[in-house]
């Protein structure tokens, strides 16, 4: 294998080593872990913009995407990332799997493990599913979202996007707005941004703020204008109606009135504040179309682009940790 | 300890002879007896009953025809009475059945158990009570009592046939793991049950507030992304029920109190003179929500493990007598029910084989005296549920436990007699070990002596 610049990262001679066998969440990561992934992700992001972007690092490796919850964009992003690295990709979604025939998560994991995949990407509607699965398989597990718990690659791609625009994370004031209670994106971002020295505010009606939220180190605002005051970054979350058992907000109409991001509310943030959204957007529910499509301030498309780079970096690093065979 | 495994065949139908227990530290909370070990005193059983007890009964040596058991200073107490176990039979025998549950009880020093009605079918019909009684007779290890549903199916608002069920031998009425939520039905149950002096046992958790939750609401649940159960669910349900007890003058028992506010509610109700008692279970005085850790489903209990300040309030409630009883809350779950993402896993933990050492932890930590701790698992439990147990009085059944209160060990779930191993205490260092369990004068469990076990 010819050495290429990316190969030199995440190896002992750079003095950086990734301390985890799986990517289950951000909460247990150190600043060094995150920096390593972001640095490598940035190199992949640059390379992805060149014609020379198809690599053979994972040639002969198999990556299984195991999705118990529908998600087109995350699955496609992981699939593209694995293919760019040269891996073979198999997609399993709940509609076609034996889960519907009553097989348990553990049985599915054991079955897939017997096929010796080199990485398992898992999305599941219940918190802790990726962690449970990681105990039963021999390959690295990448959490692509587990219930309301964590979505680590989303937080990493958000951080990369911010870092590329602002040059740093340290000291930034970030507002996360919307359904904090049910959002794995919010939890992963809260952990990552604080670990990297940013300050985080959460903005939502009290019904969408989980118990003891302040213990995670964030400031809580129920008034969006006050919450946005002085912010560098405004992260909007989707109102996840499918997760709600009861009535958390009276109507999407009322929600947009108080918590939808429009030009007027955005005026409360810093003049150069940037807007992010993990997608898919509900235009007119949590974000106004004019704001979402504002080419100078909206990072939404760049987030998607960074997603592929971040997932390449994560697959690369984790398969190395597991002793990927250098050919 | 000279104890031979298999000593006394529990399956034997022959009447046991006389047995002299010498050099035993005799503790009987029902009478306040706390006699130090002596070669001239102890306990004599004859047949199935206790024939004599006292510091001088063997002054002239034990009777020549008696089997002599030298207890070497170990504690001899009434066999434990556990007021809440799930034996899963009929319906879920793959998790536990009356045979394995009885063996688990015997190994834990428990000689009387009260089964929950949440079987399949539910215990809401005298025929199911008779089935359980027959199975227990066949197994013939420990005494198995049934509780029955307050309402048909444990989930309706139709009263079960309380009078007929009580005549069939049921010792209490409860909807088990379900809260009886409907206030009017609770009023009628309390009133109707009072005709028979029957006890109403409630799982005090307001279901519309707790619904959908899987662990204590708070920082840990928020970090783990799990839906929470606010601790107020317990206080709210107790407030309603205690008001209804005041209104009806019913007999009421609150199961597994787990919060500081819950203890306070019971304390006030007792001060007001209501006929109210309550219990808790070892997880609620020995663990807190941190035991959930990284989605440990063995720590998924109902009610959930609470905050540390709640745990301390439970210990204080036991110490001052507000909490009357400690139950094992034995709820077997097999691997398929627990090896799941936390939200999907079943609630519950086995507890029969850890009840005594966990109760002794309260003694070793200086919260309760030995005799008061034992009262929680013997005399008070038997008295409230009307069981002929929990005492060493002469003429009562010789249901005994002999245990070393200090012997150090480690809980090893894989050694449990229970079919299920879902213990949140697995691996915990403990002090105290059951040496022998006796039911109606017959040894139903004897520990393998340390020397033999090592060999």
Overall morphology of chain B: globular
Question: Biggest interface in this structure?
Answer: A-B, 25 and 22 residues
CATH architecture classification of the largest domain in chain B: Alpha-Beta Barrel
What structural class do helix, strand and pairing data of chain B support?
Answer: alpha/beta
Uncertain stretches of 5 or more adjacent residues of chain B? 1-11
Report mean pLDDT of chain A, rounded to a whole number: 90
Strand portion of chain B: 15-25%
Please state the CA-atom Rg of chain B, rounded to the nearest Å.
21 Å
Name a few traits of the molecule.
heterodimer, A: 327 residues, alpha/beta, five-stranded parallel sheet, four-stranded parallel sheet, 11 helices, 13% strand, globular, B: 455 residues, Urease, subunit C, domain 1, TIM Barrel, eight-stranded parallel sheet, six-stranded mixed sheet, 15 helices, 21% strand, disordered N terminus
């Amino acid at each position: 294998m010819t050495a290429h610049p990316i190969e030199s990262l995440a190896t002992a001679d750079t003095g950086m080593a990734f301390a985890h066998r799986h990517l289950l969440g951000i909460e247990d990561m150190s600043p060094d872990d995150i920096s390593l992934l972001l640095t490598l992700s940035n190199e992949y992001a640059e390379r992805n913009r060149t014609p020379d972007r198809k690599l053979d690092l994972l040639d002969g490796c198999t990556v299984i995407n195991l999705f118990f919850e529908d998600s087109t964009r995350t699955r496609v992003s992981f699939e593209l990332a694995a293919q760019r690295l040269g891996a073979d990709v198999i997609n399993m979604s709940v509609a076609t799997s034996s889960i519907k025939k009553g097989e348990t998560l553990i049985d599915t994991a054991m079955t897939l493990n017997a096929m010796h995949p080199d990485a398992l990407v898992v999305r599941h509607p219940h918190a802790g599913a990726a962690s449970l699965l990681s105990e039963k398989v021999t390959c690295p597990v990448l959490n692509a979202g587990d219930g309301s718990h964590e979505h680590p690659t989303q937080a990493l791609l958000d951080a990369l996007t911010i870092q590329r625009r602002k040059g740093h994370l340290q000291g930034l004031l970030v507002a996360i707005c919307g359904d904090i209670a049910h959002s794995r994106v919010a939890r992963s971002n809260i952990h990552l941004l604080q670990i990297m020295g940013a300050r985080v505010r959460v903005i939502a009606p009290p019904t969408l703020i989980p118990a003891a939220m302040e213990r995670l180190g964030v400031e809580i605002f129920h008034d969006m204008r006050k919450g946005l005051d002085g912010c560098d970054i405004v992260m909007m979350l989707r109102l996840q109606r499918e997760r709600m058992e009861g009535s958390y907000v009276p109507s999407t109409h009322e929600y947009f009135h108080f918590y939808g991001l429009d030009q007027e509310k955005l005026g409360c943030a810093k003049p150069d504040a940037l807007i992010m959204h993990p997608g898919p957007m509900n235009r007119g529910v949590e974000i106004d179309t004019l704001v979402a499509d504002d080419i100078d301030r909206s990072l939404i498309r760049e987030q998607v682009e960074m997603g592929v780079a971040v997932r390449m970096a994560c697959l690369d690093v984790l398969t190395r940790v597991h002793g990927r065979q250098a050919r | 300890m000279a104890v031979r495994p298999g000593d006394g065949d529990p399956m034997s139908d022959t009447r046991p002879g006389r047995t002299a227990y010498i050099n035993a530290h005799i503790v009987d909370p029902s009478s306040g007896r706390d006699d130090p070990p002596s070669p001239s005193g102890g306990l004599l059983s004859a047949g199935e009953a206790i024939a004599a007890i006292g510091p001088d009964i063997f002054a002239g040596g034990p009777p020549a025809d008696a089997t002599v058991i030298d207890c070497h200073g170990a504690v001899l107490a009434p066999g434990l009475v556990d007021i809440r176990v799930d034996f899963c039979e009929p319906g879920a025998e793959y998790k536990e059945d009356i045979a394995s549950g009885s063996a688990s009880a015997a190994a834990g020093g428990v000689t009387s158990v009260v089964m929950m009605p949440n079987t399949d079918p539910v215990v809401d019909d005298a025929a199911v009570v008779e089935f359980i009684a027959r199975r227990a007779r066949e197994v013939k290890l420990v005494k198995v009592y049934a509780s029955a549903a307050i309402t048909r199916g444990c989930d309706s608002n139709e009263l079960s046939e309380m009078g007929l069920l009580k005549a069939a031998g049921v010792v209490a009425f409860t909807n088990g793991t379900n809260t009886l939520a409907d206030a009017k039905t609770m009023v009628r149950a309390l009133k109707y049950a009072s005709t028979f002096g029957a006890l109403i046992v409630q799982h005090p958790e307001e279901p519309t507030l707790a619904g959908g939750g899987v662990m204590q609401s708070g920082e840990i649940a928020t970090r783990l992304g799990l839906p929470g159960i606010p601790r107020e669910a317990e206080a709210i349900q107790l407030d309603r029920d205690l008001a209804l007890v005041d209104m009806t003058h019913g007999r009421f028992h609150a199961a597994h109190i787990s919060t500081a506010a819950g203890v306070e509610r019971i304390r006030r109700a007792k001060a007001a003179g209501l006929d109210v008692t309550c219990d808790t279970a070892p997880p609620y005085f020995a663990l807190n929500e941190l035991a959930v850790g990284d989605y440990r489903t063995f720590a998924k209990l109902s009610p959930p493990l609470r905050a540390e300040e709640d745990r301390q309030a439970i210990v204080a409630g036991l110490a001052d007598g507000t909490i009357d009883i400690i139950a094992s809350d034995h709820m077997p779950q097999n691997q398929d029910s627990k090896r799941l993402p936390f939200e999907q896993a079943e609630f519950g933990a086995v507890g029969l084989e850890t009840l005594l050492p966990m109760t002794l932890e309260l003694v070793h930590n200086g919260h309760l005296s030995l005799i008061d701790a034992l009262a929680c698992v013997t005399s008070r439990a038997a008295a409230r549920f009307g069981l002929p147990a929990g005492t060493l009085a002469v003429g009562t059944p010789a249901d005994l436990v002999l245990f070393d209160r200090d012997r150090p060990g480690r809980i090893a779930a894989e050694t449990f007699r229970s079919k299920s191993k879902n213990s949140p205490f697995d691996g915990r260092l403990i002090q105290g070990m059951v040496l022998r369990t006796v039911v109606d004068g017959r040894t139903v469990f004897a520990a393998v002596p340390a020397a033999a076990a090592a060999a």
